[in-house]
Structure formats: C-alpha cells, structure tokens
UniProtKB/TrEMBL annotation, chain A:
Family: Belongs to the adaptor complexes medium subunit family.
Pfam family for this entry, one: Clat_adaptor_s
Main localization category: membrane
Keywords, in A-Z order: Cytoplasmic vesicle, Golgi apparatus, Membrane, Protein transport, Transport
Protein name per its UniProtKB record: AP-3 complex subunit mu-2
UniProt superkingdom: Eukaryota
Gene responsible for this protein: ap3m2
The organism's taxonomic lineage, starting at the top: Eukaryota, Metazoa, Chordata, Craniata, Vertebrata
Automatic annotation (TrEMBL), chain B:
Gene3D superfamilies in alphabetical order: Leucine-rich Repeat Variant
Organism placement in taxonomy: Eukaryota, Metazoa, Chordata, Craniata, Vertebrata
Location of the region described as Disordered in the Swiss-Prot/TrEMBL record: 663-798
Sequence ranges of Acidic residues compositional bias: 679-688
Protein's name in the database: AP-3 complex subunit beta
Gene Ontology CC annotations of this record: AP-3 adaptor complex; clathrin-coated vesicle membrane; Golgi apparatus
Domain annotation AP-3 complex subunit beta C-terminal: ranges: 803-948
Protein family according to the UniProt entry: Belongs to the adaptor complexes large subunit family.
Organism (species): Austrofundulus limnaeus
Pfam families: Adaptin_N, AP3B1_C, AP3B1_C_2
Biased composition regions of type Low complexity, renumbered to the chain: 689-702, 766-777
Length: 418, 1005
C-alpha cells in the first residue's frame, strides 16, 4: 500500500524519507513541488497528485507536508487517515510535531514508522502498544540512556497486540487513580450581515485522561443521551451497549485518548453565545473607511465569555487601519491585511468595542466586499448543547478512583459576514 | 554535530591516508556535493570503527547515526559488511536498527545480505512468538531473489503457527514474496486459502490484504469464509476493516442479485417519496413480485452498519461506499449523517469525502438535501474545498431550495477569492439551466454582475450569460443589447469574444447595434487579443451575410487587416472566410451554402457537473478521486442477472456429514417433528442427534446472528463480549453434546454408527478447539456451535420448537426483519413451559410422577464470575436440568471455569458458603487449570425450594472470590412425566396456588 514517505518542510526541503518496499527516488517529489508552486496557498495543494508511475497523497500539518507514495489503487482516505495518525503519534511522543523535533528524534521516528507499517500496511497504530514497544523520549530517560547506555526500546514484548483489548497496555499501576473527562464543544456558525444565524452546528468531543490501575471497566451515562445521535467512538466503547441503553461502557486505554466525538447538526437549534454589532463601510470617492465593531454576550447561561479573539481579513485596498479598542489590543498586518483584536474577557456591563478609520489606497475604488469576521472564544463550565454527564462508575477493580468532569465551549469556525 | 566533529578528529589520520579513495561515492550529483561526500566518507570510516568495537553503546551510537544518514536519503551502503555482523546482537534496539538498515540495503548488497539469513532462520524456530514474527518480517522484507525458497518455506510454516500474531506476519510476508517473485503465485494462493480459514481477528485483515494483492480474482476462495468474515468484521482492527469491506463489496456484487431492480424505475422519477420510509415500505410490500434479499447479503449490510460509528474516517467511507453499491436504495440514507460528520475532520479528509458526496449527490439529491447548510462555504476554506462545496450545492439545488442557495451564492460572488467567485457564477449558470423557474432571476442577477468592478467576475458572467442565452435566445434581445453597451468597459478577452459571438449569432435581433459594434471593432482590431480578433472576423462574416448593405466595406476592411495579422490562425480564418462569403469565380459551390454554414442553429451547451461521469468508479477509491483509472483498480462488476448458487457459502464440517443439505430441508418440515414426540425411542433420539450435528455443521452464520440476539437480550453482554458469549454457548454446546453422547451410549441399543461417530468427533474437536483457543475470544465460532443448544431447547417444548424451527428458516430467507421480537427467549419460556408440557405431551406412562431425564440443557449460561473480577478466572454456570446425582433435593448446576490468564491457576475449589446452612455438594478441587483452558464441573445445591441466592466462595490457591447463584423458579422444578388425567388429579390436589393459563397448540402426536 504505502510505498514510501517523505517529509517536506515549508521551504520545500525533504528532510526525512522512509521506504517500506523498494526505494523510490526522491525525485518523485518534483511532481509535488510543481503542484505546490501552482497552488497559491499552502493549503491549496491537492491532497492526491497523480504522477506517471506513482500517486502522491499528502497531508499538511504543523507546516510539514507528509507525502506518501502509492503505487496502485488504494482508498485515499486510508492513507490520509494513516498519515494523520502518524502525526498524532509524533505529537504524542515529542510534544510537538515540528521539523526540529523530528530531526532531533530521528531514530525514534524511524523505529516508530517501522512498527507502524509493515510492507506498507498498518501494523500497530494504537499509542498504548507503540509506547510499550518504544518508550517516548523524556529528558530524564535521555540522560539515563546516555549515561548507562540503555535504550528506549522496550525490553518487554508487546503483549498488548494479542490481547482482547489491544488499546490498553497491561500491568498498569498508579498510586493515584484518577479519571478525568473533558467535554469540549465547538460551535461552527455562519452569522449573516443582519445578525441572523445562517448555519450553526456543534462539534463535541469527550477527551479523557484515565490513569487507573489494572483493568478497570468504566461506564459513563448521560442525563440527556438523546442529544447524541451522531457519534463516533473510540474502539474501546461497546457499541451494542450504547445501542441498547445509551450508556458508554468501555475498558479505557491508558493515558489520554478521545473517547467520543459527536455532532449536533444544524437541524437542531443552537444557541449562539455572542453577538457582533458591526459597521464597516467604505465610501465611494474618499480614501477612508469606517470601522466600528462591538461584541456582546447572549445566551451564555450566566457564564463569562473568555479568551475572545477577533480576526478579519480586510480588503486588499486597505493600506492602514487606525483603530481604538475599548479593551485589549489590536494589530494590523499591512502585508497580509490581517486585522486581529485580542479582546480577552467580555464584560457585559461595558461591552468591548473597536472603532476607527481605515485608510485606503489613494485612487483605488471602493472594495466591493466587506470582510468576514472570525471570532474565537471560550466559555468554561458549560456545554452549549446542554449535554451533561450523569455518572461514572467503575467495575472490575477494588479501589476508589478520583473522578472529574469538565465542560467547555469554544468557538470553532465561527464567522460573521458583514 | 559536535560528536561528529569529535569522531572526525579521531578518524582524521586514516582519512588522510585513504584520501585517494574518495572517488568511491557514486552519485550523479554535481561537484557541490563532493565536499559533502568527503565528510560523509570520513564519518563512515569512523562509524565502521565504532561498529567493530566491543562496546555495545558505541555500536548503538554508530547505528543511530547511520539511521540518521538513511533518513536523509544519503548513501550508507558501504557499511553493509560492518553492520551485518551485528544482526545477532543481544541488544534489542541495536538489533532493530540493524534490521532497519538491512531492509533498506539488502537489495543492493545481495551477497552480503545472505550472511544474515541463518540468524533469521534460527530465530524462526524461537519459542517466543514475537521473535518468530519479527524474524519472518525482516526475512521477508529482504528483497533478495535467491532466498525465495527459504521465504516460501518460512511462510508456510508460519501460516501454521499456533500464534495468530505469527500467522498475521506470514500474511504480510505473502505480499512481499509475491512482489519479489510472482511465479510463486500458485503456492502462495494455497497459503492464502489456508489463512483465510483462520478464525482470528488478528489475521483476517492481513490475509484479505494479501488476497487483494495476489489473487483478487479468486473469488471462489471467499465463499466459505464469507460469513465468518462478516461476523468477525466488528472486532478486526480498523485498517483490516477497510480492506475487508472493500473486498466484500466486490464479492457481493458478483454473488447477489440487485436489490434495486423493482424500484429502479419509480426511484428515478420521484426520489422524494423515497425518503418517507413509510410509504416506501408499503410500496415494497405491495410490489407484485417482491425481491427477497439473500440472507448473506443482508448479513453483510447488517454487520457493517455499526462501523459507521468508527473514529477512523477510512472505515466510515468504506462502509458508505458499501451501502452505496450494495444496499437497497431506501437504506442508503443511513450513511448520510456519518459522511457529513466527516466533514469536520482534517482538510484532506474533507476533500475526499466531498468528492464522494459530489458524485452521490448527482444521483440522489434527497440524501444530502437536509444537510444543505453543512456545505455552506466559509471564507477560511481552501479553494479546492470551496469549489467542491459549490459543486455539491449546485447538485442539490431544487425548486424548493433554490432561493436559499442563490442567496448564499450572492455572498460567494462577492468573495475576495476571485477564482471562487468565478466558479460561483458558473454554478449559478448551472442552477439556471437545471431549474427553469429561476432562469430569469439568474439571468437578471448575472446581468447585474456585468457592472461589477472585478474583471474576472464580469468576464465569467458574460460567458455564462452567453451560454444561458443560447438555450433560450428568443426572449432576451434586451440583454444582448445591454451587453453590447457594456462592451466598451469590458477588457477581459474571453468576455469580449463572448459578446462578439453573441451579437454575431443573434445579429438579426439587434440590427442596429451589430453593425455599430463592428465599426468599433474595426477601429481597435489590431490592438485586440487573438481570440477577440477571431470573433470579430466571425461577426463580420455573419453581418456580411445578413446585412451586407451596411457592412460590406467594414467587413472587407477587417478581412484585410486579418490577412496581414501576425497570428497565422487569424490569417487562416480570414482567408477561409473570404473564400466562403465573397463570391468569386474561384470559390466553388461552398459559398452558396455560406449562410447555412455560418448561421446554422447551434445546439445549446449543456452545463453539467464535473462529477457526472465519476460514478463509473467505485466510490472511495483512488481512481474515483482522480477520475482516472489507477493502476490496480478492480472494476466493480454489475449485478448478476441470476444469483450464483448461494449454497457455496455454507460451511462444511471438518468431518463432512453426508447429505446434510437435504436433511436440513427435511428438518424444516413439520413431519420430522413427529419423530420427536415418540420420545424415549432411539429413533427420535437419533433423529435429533443427527439433525443437531447437521445443523451445527451448516450454520456458522446462525451462530453469529444468534450471539447477536443473545446480546440484545442480555443487556450486559456487549459488543466486545459478543465473541465471548458465543464461545460460551459453544462450550455449553460441547458439553451438552457430551451429555447426549452419554445418553446415547446409555440408552441406545444400536446407535447408528455414522451418527455416534460424527458426534464423537465433533465433541472431540470442539473440546480441542476450546483448548486451543487460548489466545483470544475470536476462536469462538468453531464448527459445532450454538445451534446445538437451540435444538435442545427445541426438544423441550413442541410449540416453541415449531417457532424455533421457523426462526431458522426465517434466518435463511429474510432475517432482516427486526429479529428480537420473535426471537425465542428459551430460558424463560422453557422453564415455565417445562412443567406444563410434561403433563401434556405424554400419555402412556405410569400414573405417578416419573422423573424424566431430559436430554437437553438450556443454552443460556449465567455469569458467575467475570474474568476481571476473578483476576483471570472466569466462571459461568448453567442448569443442566438433570436430576442431581448427589441428593434428590439438590439442583444440579454446572460450572464452566476458564482461565484467561497467561499462567495456570491452581487449586480451584469451593470455600465458605452462606447462609451457613446451605448445603452444597462441591466439585472436586481442580488442581491445575492451564492458561486458556476451561473445565466444566458439576455441583449440586439445595436451594430449599426458594429463590434465595446461594452464596459461596470460589477459591484459588491465592485468592478467593465470593459468588452467588440465584436460580430462576423454573430451575428449581423437577422434570417429570405424567399423563394428562394424572396431571389433572395432581392439579386438583394443589390448592391456593397461583394458576397460570396458556394455550398451547400441539401437533397431534
């Protein structure tokens, strides 16, 4: 399936290559560079590129292109999904997935890739198994290794690969047993000029950090499971039980993992926690434009809207902006024409406002499109869909674990058209 | 790098001496690389030294640096001899790195690579499965043709290995060997055939991958494994799932008849009614000749459905395409939601999913219409995502939603991304042609856009308007006029050319404007772009033909200009036109037809989706994504007109029983039931025996569905347990079979030889399979499966039997009816019916209570001790409903103890009990239970006729676990036989008891 993998950085250098079958010359990447040149933005490089003898399937993350070389028919999503899994693993191992981190840990990277694919077919992609095979590098371990000459390859053989629960490593031991669940929801919305919602949907995930000894068997139940009608599970979740009782029953992997992700679609009503009042105008003839933006909270159930960040791509004709924020700071990049305003927390008594003028290129006609405004925010202790965890129970182990649930709502792709 | 410098210093002396050899690096790169390679060379020297040292840490360090070299794509092949020596190193990391190196360079250094082979051959015999597996992995990755026979041997051996992990590795090795030496295909197919029979979920994905690579056309190999693959699918790892689903899609298209036939016609006409599932269902039912889906076809659809919930996008896509290509039209809708969910994923995933949705939405608008808003474009989307979304929105446009879509399009037209704005205008054009109601609105909107400031937008609008006008030119002369007016302001050549063409084409409608435009063009002709010039010549020619009076001079002027143009195309065109329209002696007959040639009615262009023809490819494939046939693409065959023989998928028993198929048919007939009632006779016994063994032979597929049902019934059994549950039932079945055997030998005077034989062999191999199934639950559906217990419950109660029988045939024909409603709940029914039936069915036995020993046991086992709580010891119990051997007032209970650990458990026995008065006849202490093994013991418990739970401790050498058995009321009853009058008599004696009445239809015995 996957023949070779090339890692290419933002400046177009191939800084790592790995082959699982016969070696494919790196000149195959020239086709990729060609496509890259044609694309105006880095994101616009098509994910699938045909070449005379191979097919290149690429993924762009953290400003690194992961280019897989394929020789024959294969579902493209298979490769894409796998590449993303590789990136996730790197991130898991090295904290960040940057060129520097990969170069520093090239041996671990190679060992990982060797375990993840055999002859181009995925072998072990579960992070729990990989960690049993290859220990993630930590500062301490690197020190110990250099002094004692020991290795970061697991001495034990990966029994997990054979078990009924391949996602969990065996022999887990903790002195503090704890299980934390974060319910994080993101609102994707498009708000039109007049402030009415064109489309809004909620993307939710439940991320878990479970550090429990032994083989705990957990069940998680919800107050209102009916909200979750479109879900995808971590393989550990017992699907039948969910179907029958709407209870999540699972033996968790060790450590961090995504238990569940769900989608509350646009057909349901979605509460929009902020509103924007805007007045962005360009007058014909004059080289000035007015900019006036006010943010306010709505439907937040009394919770504070925090970490608000407004960004907007102003029209190309704008030379400079001379604005005055009532709180926070703003920046305007005259090259990319990107205006960002770091608002911080919204105070309902004194609504944040950004006001001022924009200078246009002299003589240029008025831009015919008003910019879209992207908003980011966070609301703690609230899941906007109203999802609530009822209880978490543990079976199979004797001890009492410490349990915690956290809710958060964030803006996803939240756009306001003006 | 500092370390590197250090080593450079060390090696400097030698480097100086050997400087003459620096020409060795073979590389096509230019002189600039020379310096680079010279340092490489030095480094390699000291690497060699480090590798030859005695210190492990030095060797490791050297290997790490070599891996770094490899990762940068630099050549490190000359180190091969030094490295290959370390292949047998004790240090695991060092060994792994050496493997990495070997696999990379063995192809180039074949002779030297052979040195390492013996090490691997030795490791292939290692007692540790992981060492065996990794040896095979590396051995098969070394692409050296000489070792093909060795590889073949190793693969064959590994394919028969006890460890599923090694077998998995051998499946991977098959592909490698095949790519190395395709001549081995035949032998490899044999191995694949063998591995396909494997029941481990670990192996399934890999072997199907090998199948796809080596012999995708040998569909006959799949038949026997089809049902097993379907049933295992949920538990296979995600990557394997994708491969299996894709393979099964192809398989199903060759084996089943189309589920679309009946409704194909009315489907295309009114797709909307499709989505009201009710009306659809009704229609289905009233359909004269209903299509009955092959149960195997249904099995596939049912077993893949849960995978739509997978977190792996590739799996979701695979299931979606399976439904698209295989499911009845009204069921395809269930994939919509999941596909839309994927749109939240990474950009690349979005891209592929949107492509597939685009193809789907052309054929079936209704599927995605409710999710219209999910395809709205955000300004932050990448351009190719935007265009795909636009494509889908256009495909989804109907009369009902067009106004919303157009409003959305208005926003897009204003986008800063001008390429996207242009694409939007084209989309508007497509909407306008597809939906005649809005054509005028669209046209007007587009005309407004003509005054847009941006050139690309204007140009695109002109082009689209041109196309639209062509479809209905009669009504729109004012638009043509308007465009002519705009002509001066438009500078984009394509747009100018389009206007000129339009005016030329419809010059008779704008008789005054056209010559004027030509006049303007004559002035600027030389300054125009080529494409505009060509159209000017065209315009001139057309005007000359229609209105030669006014334009003759102008035309000649333009033709003269064209004659001396720099571009030969224009010169050619001019010459051609002149000959055509200006009659002279040389121009032949053609000029007579000039008018008909130039002013022929031209067909309107059809504005079609770019995804129109993509459906020729299987969805989700690379070929579909590229719209080119990728190498290795397997065409999806059309449905066969007549389904091939479905019995090929029936699974044989290892020891084949004769004539199973006809007797299965017989078993379905009510006649055979008669036999059962003539109880206590060998014949009946025999019949039930043989048919049970036959049943079990034929129905692995039932086992799957049954275990499913079971888990539906018992809420605590969940998907991951389902394998286990079926293995339980297996155990119980093997047991009950053993029981039956006992009875046979006891009762039968002359047991049919073949019969007892088959039973025996079956009992044997089921027990052996339980033993061997040490590693996982997936061994569960071995050949003698759950039907046996079902059969047994059947014997208990004639009525339920009929039902159960019917259930079997239901499964065969259309098991897609929501099963649980009529699924038998044997444990409940049997216990309650049991006592009634006993009194009813028999008539010729002595009046008093006669205890019958029923030859059946209920299939349901209860969990006594979960292996989690039991630290690896798991215990199940069930009531065999046999009179207890130990004391008459005790109830016989059978315990199945299984060791799920990887070490053996010792001294399993019963410890303290409560209440203390409880009398239990314990089983003998089990000295030792091997890992993975399970043992069945029987014990007797006196519940003293109450449903109070019996609590006791189950002890092992180290631990004790408190367990409790709570009997259902029915289990406390003693099976007995009495005549009807006796029963009535006895019944009358009882007073104050609750009466339960039920009507039972009995076959006349």
């Amino acid at each position: 399936m996957i023949h070779s993998l090339f890692l290419i950085n933002a400046s177009g250098d191939i800084f790592l290559e790995k082959h699982w079958k016969s070696v494919v010359s790196r000149s195959v990447c020239d086709y990729f560079f060609e496509a890259q040149e044609r694309a105006t933005e880095p994101e616009n490089v098509p994910p699938v590129i045909p070449t005379p003898h191979h097919y290149l399937i690429s993924v762009l993350r953290h400003r690194i292109y992961f280019v897989a070389v394929i020789q024959s028919e294969v579902p493209p999503l298979f490769v894409i999904e796998f590449l993303h899994r590789v990136v996730d693993t790197f991130q898991d191992y090295f904290g960040v997935c940057t060129e520097a981190a990969i170069k520093d840990n090239v041996v671990v990277v190679y060992e990982l890739l060797e375990e993840m694919l055999d002859n181009g077919f995925p072998l072990a992609t579960e992070s729990n198994i990989l960690k049993e095979l290859i220990k993630p590098p930590t500062i301490l371990r690197t020190m110990v290794n250099t002094i004692t000459g020991s290795t970061n390859v697991g001495e034990q053989l990966p029994t997990g690969q054979l078990s009924v629960v391949p996602w969990r490593r065996t022999g887990v031991k903790y002195t503090n047993n704890e299980a934390y669940f974060d319910v994080v929801e993101e609102i994707d919305a498009i708000i039109d000029k007049s402030g009415s919602t064109i489309t809004a949907e909620i993307q939710g995930v439940i991320d878990a950090c479970v550090k429990l000894t032994g083989m705990p068997d957990l069940t998680l139940s919800f107050m209102n499971p009916r909200l979750l009608d479109d879900v995808s599970f971590h393989p550990c979740v017992r699907f039948k039980r969910w179907e029958a009782e709407r209870i999540l029953s699972f033996i968790p992997p060790d450590g961090n993992f995504r238990l569940l992700s769900y989608h509350v679609s646009s057909q349901n009503l979605v509460a929009i926690p902020v509103y924007v009042k805007h007045n962005i105008t360009f007058r014909e003839g004059s080289s000035q434009g007015r900019f006036d933006l006010t943010l306010g909270p709505k439907q937040t159930m009394g919770k504070a809207v925090e970490a608000v960040l407004v960004s907007s791509q102003l029209p190309r004709g704008v030379l400079n902006a001379n604005l005055n924020p009532s709180q926070g700071t703003y920046t305007f990049d005259p090259v990319t024409k990107l205006l960002t305003w770091d608002v911080g927390k919204i105070n309902p008594q004194k609504l944040p406002n950004l006001k001022g003028t924009m200078n246009l290129q002299a003589g240029a006609s008025k831009p015919d499109e008003n910019p879209t405004i992207n908003i980011q925010f966070k609301i703690q202790q609230m899941a906007i869909s109203g999802l609530k965890v009822n209880r978490l129970d543990m079976y199979g182990e004797k001890y009492k674990p410490f349990k915690g649930i956290k809710y958060m709502t964030k803006a996803g792709k939240f756009q306001v058209r003006t | 790098m500092s370390t590197a410098a250090l080593y450079n210093d060390q090696g400097a002396a030698e480097a100086a001496v050997e400087a003459g050899q620096e020409t060795t690096p073979t590389s096509s790169s230019s002189g600039a690389a020379f310096g680079l390679f010279s340092t490489d060379f030095k480094k390699n020297e000291d690497l060699k030294e480090m590798l030859e040292s005695n210190k492990e840490s030095l060797k490791l360090e050297a290997m790490k640096r070599i891996v770094q070299l490899i990762s940068k794509g630099k050549n490190a092949s000359e180190l091969f001899p030094a490295i290959v020596k370390n292949v047998a190193s004790k240090n695991i990391e060092l060994k792994k790195l050496v493997y990495v190196y070997l696999v990379r360079y063995a192809e180039e250094q074949q002779d030297l690579a052979l040195l390492s082979i013996s090490t691997f051959q030795r490791a292939l015999k290692d007692p540790n499965q992981f060492i065996r597996a990794s040896a095979l992995r590396v051995l098969s990755s070394i692409r050296v043709p000489i070792i093909v026979p060795i590889m073949m041997l190793a693969i064959k051996e590994a394919a028969a290995d006890l460890s599923p992990y090694v077998r998995k590795t051998s499946a991977h090795a098959i592909q490698k060997l095949h790519s190395l030496d395709p001549d081995q295909k035949e032998q490899l197919i044999e191995v694949i055939e063998k591995l396909l029979k494997d029941k481990s979920t670990l192996v399934a994905g890999s072997v199907v991958m090998a199948f796809e690579e080596v012999c995708p056309d040998r569909i006959d190999l799949i038949h026997k494994n089809y049902r097993k693959l379907c049933n295992l699918l949920v538990d296979v790892e995600e990557w394997g799932q994708v491969v299996i689903i894709n393979m099964l899609t192809r398989y199903a298209r060759t084996q089943f008849t189309t589920p679309w036939k009946e409704d194909a016609v009315f489907d295309e006409n009114n797709e909307k009614t499709f989505y009201d599932s009710d009306s659809e269902d009704k229609k289905d039912q009233t359909e004269a000749k209903p299509y009955i889906m092959d149960p195997d076809h249904r099995l596939l659809l049912r077993n893949t459905k849960p995978l739509l919930q997978s977190r792996n996008t590739a799996v979701v896509m695979a299931v979606s395409q399976l439904y698209w290509h295989l499911a009845p039209k009204h069921e395809i809708g269930i994939v919509t939601k999941s596909l839309v969910r994927l749109l939240r994923s990474h950009r690349e995933v979005q891209f592929i999913v949107l492509q597939n949705i685009a193809t789907m939405s052309i054929q079936r608008k209704g599927m995605f219409e409710p999710y219209l808003k999910s395809f709205y474009v955000r300004s932050t989307d990448a351009t190719h995502i935007k265009t795909l979304k636009l494509e889908i929105l256009t495909n989804l446009a109907t009369e009902a939603n067009i106004s919303t879509i157009l409003r959305e399009f208005q926003t897009y037209v204003k986008s800063q991304d001008k390429a996207f704005a242009a694409a939007t205008i084209q989309a508007i054009g497509r909407c306008a042609t597809n939906i005649s109601e809005v054509t005028d609105t669209c046209l007007n909107g587009l005309v407004l856009l003509l005054s847009n400031r941006d050139e690309t937008v204007v140009a695109e609008s002109v082009v689209v308007i041109k196309k639209l006008l062509q479809t209905q030119p009669t009504q729109h002369s004012d638009i043509i006029k308007h465009m002519a007016k705009l002509f001066d302001n438009i500078t984009v050549p394509m747009a100018r050319a389009s206007i000129l063409w339009l005016i030329g084409e419809y010059c008779e409608r704008v008789p005054k404007i056209a010559p004027d435009l030509l006049r303007k063009m004559a002035k600027t002709f030389t300054a125009e772009e080529d494409i505009v010039k060509l159209q000017t010549v065209n315009l001139a020619a057309k005007l000359y033909l229609t209105n030669s009076k006014q334009t003759k001079l102008l035309t000649q002027y333009i033709l003269n200009l064209g004659k001396y143009d720099q571009n030969y195309d224009i010169r050619d065109r001019t010459r051609f036109i002149r000959q055509l329209i200006v009659p002279n002696e040389k121009s032949g007959a053609l000029s007579k037809y000039a008018r008909r040639i130039l002013l022929a009615a031209k067909p309107a262009p059809v504005l079609e989706s770019a995804f129109k023809d993509r459906d020729r490819f299987q969805l989700g494939t690379l070929s579909h994504s590229l719209n080119i046939k990728a190498s290795g693409y397997q065409e999806l065959s059309d449905w066969p007109a007549v389904a091939p023989d479905p019995t090929v998928r029936n699974v044989e028993v290892i020891d084949p029983v004769k004539e199973w198929a006809p007797s299965l048919g017989k078993a379905k007939q009510p006649k055979s039931d008669d036999k059962f009632y003539s109880d206590e006779e060998e014949k009946g016994e025999e019949g039930s025996d043989s048919s049970s063994s036959e049943d079990s032979s034929s129905s692995t597929e039932e086992s799957g569905s049954e275990s499913e049902k079971e888990s539906n019934e018992e809420s605590e059994k969940t998907s991951t347990d389902s394998g286990k549950s079926s293995s339980d039932s297996e155990r119980s079945s093997s047991e009950s079979e053993a029981e039956q055997k006992k009875k046979n030998t006891k009762k039968k005077n002359k047991p049919a030889a073949a019969d007892s034989d088959s039973v025996e062999s079956e009992a044997k191999d089921s027990s052996s399979s339980t033993e061997s199934s040490s590693e996982s639950n997936s061994e569960s559906d071995s050949d003698s499966d759950s039907p046996a217990p079902q059969k047994i419950s059947v014997k208990a109660k004639p009525k339920v039997e009929l039902k159960a029988k019917k259930e079997v045939s239901l499964l065969d024909l259309d098991d897609f009816s929501p099963a649980p409603t009529n699924a038998p709940k044997p444990s409940v029914i049997s216990s309650s019916l049991l006592s009634d039936l006993k009194g009813l069915s028999l008539s010729n036995v002595s009046p008093t209570l006669q205890i019958t020993t029923s030859s059946f046991g209920p299939e349901k086992t209860h969990e006594l001790l979960h292996h989690m709580t039991g630290k690896g010891l798991s215990a199940k119990y069930h009531f065999p409903r046999q009179p207890c051997l130990y004391q008459p007032q005790m109830v016989a209970v059978q315990l199945i103890l299984t060791n799920t650990l990887d070490h053996s458990l010792e001294e399993i026995h019963v410890g303290d009990r409560s209440p203390a008065s409880l009398s239990i006849h314990c089983f003998n202490t089990i000295e030792r239970l091997e890992p993975g093994a399970s043992v069945t013991v029987s014990m007797g418990i006196d519940f003293s006729d109450s449903t109070q739970a019996a609590n006791f401790h189950l002890c092992t050498k180290e631990d004790q676990f408190s367990v409790s058995i709570q009997p259902a009321v029915g289990e406390l009853l003693m099976p007995s036989t009495m005549t009807e009058p006796d029963f009535c008599k006895e019944q009358k004696k009882l007073q104050g008891m609750n009466e339960t009445s039920a009507t039972i239809i009995m076959a006349t015995a």
